Amino acid sequence: MSSALMSGAALTPAGAQLALPGAVAPTPEGTVTSPGGKSKKKLSSGEMGQARGPVVMPKAPSEETIVGKTLQLDGAGGAIEFSRIGPDLEVAKLTLSGDRLSRSGEECRVEIAGMPLKLTRRDSGSGLRRYQLLSLPACPFTLDVLDGAILVTNDGKACEIKEADCRADPSGLWGTAEREFDPKKAEDMLGARAKVEKDVRADFRELYERNKKEKLVRSFVVKEQAGFSSWREEVCRSYAKESDFGYCALRLTEARAIALGAQLASGVKLPEGYAEAAAAEEAAAKAKGKK
């Protein structure tokens, strides 16, 4: 077995089932606000309300923006390629990079065998096209399709691929490789991000105005928006040439615009248990204030 590439002990995918947070639809019962801002209690899963007025949700990026391209994690790490078999999207090639299990700090790379890998379509609830890779038991993950990129989540856990003596974390943005960035397009990319940022701020203000009389929904919308910037910074801090191009931030901000558009068009769906958690937090704050 090579120190850089697993051979001989190929990882052959087999059937597996794994539920990752936010990856499996439908969502349990919760609170949904209509586009007009009025709440509807205990609507069944998937009932998002009907859009009123001229709200137009941004179009989600198509799978065609990623088919036939090589996408790299953080622009310099693992690599993934997609293909289409009829209507189905599949992983045509996958290489994971990480640290050796036996020697922490030493890099390892694993080329996954048994291609292609089947992807299962899921409802993202955010307006994006979402898929789960369940056919690789050693490292299942969820991906959202962005414009020429994918955002991968893995329940916060790195994959231990013992046959290759490798621990790899596939979570993050897989997109344009470092070598493909054109310095002449840096200014245009940064300008595009500024425009999308402006759209996001406008959509957030509109969403807030529609829900400002609903305390629970309003607080959720505010917290979600407030947490976006720090989350984006965490995801993008390791992306190649990010300070020069802002590529990762642009793609995640575009995804945020689509998510806000979905909420404007169809209403805000509160996560399961959010109301209970908010009530408990408020009660704890009041109890603390009385001491």
Give an overview in words.
The chain folds into two domains: 120 residues, no CATH class; 117 residues. It has five helices and 14 strands. Strand 9 and strand 10 form a beta hairpin. Helix 1 runs antiparallel to helix 2. The longest helix has 26 residues. The N and C termini lie far apart (64 Å). This is DUF1311 domain-containing protein.
| Order of helical and strand elements | EEEEEEEEEEEEEEHHHHH
Summarize the main sheet. Answer: 12 strands, antiparallel
Number of strands: 14
Distance between the termini: 64 Å
List segments where confidence is low: pLDDT < 50 over at least 5 consecutive residues.
1-31, 39-53
Structural class: alpha+beta
Shape annotation: globular
Q: Oligomeric state of the chains?
A: single chain
Please tell me the overall pLDDT.
82
Proportion in helices = 25-40%
